[in-house]
Amino acid sequence: MENPDTPPTKIAKLISHAGITFEVFRPEELPGIPIFGEPRQRRNNSSSDSNNKKRKADEEEEGWEKRRRTTIECELFDRVFIGLETQACNEGERLPRLPDWLNAVREDQWDTRAPGVFLVQPSLEDFRTRFVEMMGVLEAIGVEMGVVKIKIPEGWNDSPPIPSPESDSAPPDLELYTMTQRLPLHPSSKSNLAPIYHVTSSTKHTISASRWRDIIRIPTRPAAALSEIKMCFRGRQWNNILTGIPRDGPTHYSSDNDITDDLRSYLSLSDPKLTSLPGNVLHDNITAVTGIHTPYLYIGQAYTMFALHTEDYNALSLNYQHSGAPKSWRVCSPRSFTALEDFIAASIPNTRNCSQFVRHQSIYLPRETLEKAGVRSTLVRQFPGEMVITWPLAYHQGWNEGVNVNEACGYGNERWRELFPERVRRVKEGRGAGGGVYRACSGRCVGREEPVRLVYGGEE
């Protein structure tokens, strides 16, 4: 007996052409083929709703991005030189004249010999009493170049805390976050002339501070400068790519360690009093955020690096070097931030899901790549006793030329507060023209960490 569930036998018409025989069926004999005149099947409502939500979110994000760029152009870049006496500098750039009391010199970039970062060397008295004035004078240079170096005057730092008699060895709980790093090419890197590197870090683990103390104390002879080309080349060696371990061994980097008095005492670190510098309105925030309101400690070995990023809330950053080999920075001009973001969004597919998408990529862009993207950058070498200051919208990245010890924290002046957190608050209250210029990570982003949110008095 014939099974009623068995579909009827399809009768095919045979057609031969050029020695090939084809089977031809009528449309109604094939399952799933729409017949002319039949009503179209409705799409799944949940899928349609999801697509509509995504399209609406994309349109909203695009509109916010346009308002953000227009606001920054009008309220920051167009106003920075108002009332200042400027002078022509490198390749047509115009920068303000700095007062004599800053004892400013402009260093050369050691890879191209082009004019580079300004190093200011105030006296101890001027540094102590005129710091807010100094930051105001340096504002225009920071907006143009994104970076300034300050030589901390002798006598400013406080001595390391006196260790207790029993602290000759590290206490059991005195440990430092540590990770290993590599620098392979990013999967989306397509051009040898403009490579994109992926800063790959292992999961952080803790090790005893005594191990790092022993490394720091080892006398080192002055080494040849570790160039950007050499640093990147090491990450592309076949042995590194195949095994995950560089030929001359892994490099270790200790980052994001909250500095305590015990840690300063144990590592014999003086206190540059970064959080005590006047004019820092970040401290008006209702709650403190470690690493922003309090300093973080960083200990690096040769070839360790930090990926391209800007600070949370586009704040300024204060970065002091205690000891060791130079730390090299590549800092992009704030005026180039749109060109940089557009280049990364075009080079790495499906990345622009939130306003912090650049930092989520964990990438390094060498000078030739930045030049191709139309981004102006400055190579800075930082030495012990110097403080590097980065400005809002200045994307920066870098590497360590050898073992060194650094600490950093955030800084915000009144101009920063007016443009970033205050504007965010006014827009939320419906009182802001234009739009907010900063957004923390949203639900669409791929970041794994909780976004930093600054809350000032009067905000919810």
TrEMBL record:
<dbReference type="GO" id="GO:0051864">
    <property type="term" value="F:histone H3K36 demethylase activity"/>
</dbReference>
<dbReference type="GO" id="GO:0005634">
    <property type="term" value="C:nucleus"/>
</dbReference>
<dbReference type="GO" id="GO:0000785">
    <property type="term" value="C:chromatin"/>
</dbReference>
<protein>
    <recommendedName>
        <fullName>JmjC domain-containing protein</fullName>
    </recommendedName>
</protein>
<dbReference type="GO" id="GO:0010468">
    <property type="term" value="P:regulation of gene expression"/>
</dbReference>
<feature type="domain" description="JmjN">
    <location>
        <begin position="117"/>
        <end position="159"/>
    </location>
</feature>
<dbReference type="InterPro" id="IPR003349">
    <property type="entry name" value="JmjN"/>
</dbReference>
<dbReference type="GO" id="GO:0032454">
    <property type="term" value="F:histone H3K9 demethylase activity"/>
</dbReference>
<feature type="domain" description="JmjC">
    <location>
        <begin position="248"/>
        <end position="428"/>
    </location>
</feature>
<dbReference type="InterPro" id="IPR003347">
    <property type="entry name" value="JmjC_dom"/>
</dbReference>
<feature type="region of interest" description="Disordered">
    <location>
        <begin position="33"/>
        <end position="67"/>
    </location>
</feature>
<dbReference type="Pfam" id="PF02373">
    <property type="entry name" value="JmjC"/>
</dbReference>
